[in-house]
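To: structure subgroup
Subject: Chain for Friday's discussion

All,

I'm putting the inputs and outputs inline so they're searchable in the archive.
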Amino acid sequence: NLPTVAIVTPSDITCITLSVTLDASGSAGGNDYVWTTPDGNIVSGANTANPVVDATGTYILTFTNSTSGCSNTDNIVVSEDVTPPTAIATAGGNIDCNTTEIALNGGGSDTPPNFDILWTTTNGNILFGETTLTPVVDAAGTYTLEVTSLSNGCVTNASVDVTEDLTAPLVDAGSDMD
């Protein structure tokens, strides 16, 4: 009798899951596991039921009964989901004496519930809404929108610069005449 090869469909490799463990522990009738791949990468456990792999590709298991010499072969494909989210950042104007606050705009970006939104700045000031597509700011600076995919952990950033012109106008009433 030929050994039975049973390989569980693995999870995808993602931006946060950089390696996966293959599972052929349901195989029966053999005792010698040999994993090979023409296009992937086996990190460890090539002669076990549960090798760790860190690349997409086809993984081939040859499962042998060392007593009878009979073997059986099957394969599994490891896929990836590393599609980055979309992040687009724009400003609704600039800060000046008449406009002391403006809303930034992340319109066109991927949105919740499948994506997390976070605006940050190191030299500006976010008044509120840093986890929305339209935060309100009141200072010049560079503002960065970070969009994170909750399905694969991939992150994309986009930045926008806000400037300010708070220079008071010069007033000249002319020379003093008597």
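Points worth raising on Friday:
The mean pLDDT is 94.
Residues 45 and 51 are 4 Å apart (CA to CA).

D.
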